[in-house]
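Incident log, entry 3
Record: Outer membrane protein assembly factor BamE domain-containing protein (189 residues)
Problem: checksum mismatch between cached and fresh output.
Input:
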Amino acid sequence: MKLKLHETRFFVVVIAMLAAVALGGCEDRQIDSMWQTLKAFFDSVKPDVLLLKGLTPGVSTLDDVRRQMGKPETERVFDDFSRRLEYPRGPAGLNTYMVDIGPNGRLVAITQVLVAENFAKIRIGMSQDEVRQMLGKPGQVAAFRLKKETVWSWKWREGGVEQEAFFNVHFGPDGRVTTTSRSDVIRGH
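Fresh output:
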């Protein structure tokens, strides 16, 4: 049985943490910190079905979401005290979840934002922050100094001839969208 890279990393982290605890001499704070690190790692690699398990709009609370999904990449708090939490599953992942919490602290919706409908909403002149609010953290960022542009890329499930592709947003020197593009995922042999 061959382990995938993320599975191997998980086992290495678990073994290292167990060894540290077994060695003793750790304060409770250090042990708690190690467990938090382990949980954060597990949350980042667990399958989406487990990540979202048991979360119900109108019932689940902000604390329920954090307990189940872990720490978000970003959290935006709006004027009405509603929130949007960002959970990218990348850089190799194909999903980014935006979790909307109402002013009452209850889950409103969980939306997978890496879809063609959202990509079509990206417009020339949008700021990097506006794009980030719509699509979440890019899986890749490339700076092209000679062209004076930065390209953010998200891997997504396109569903065409190739199941996976990259959606790219090109920014000019002013940090504003100049164009968008798509590119193939190059597979090694």
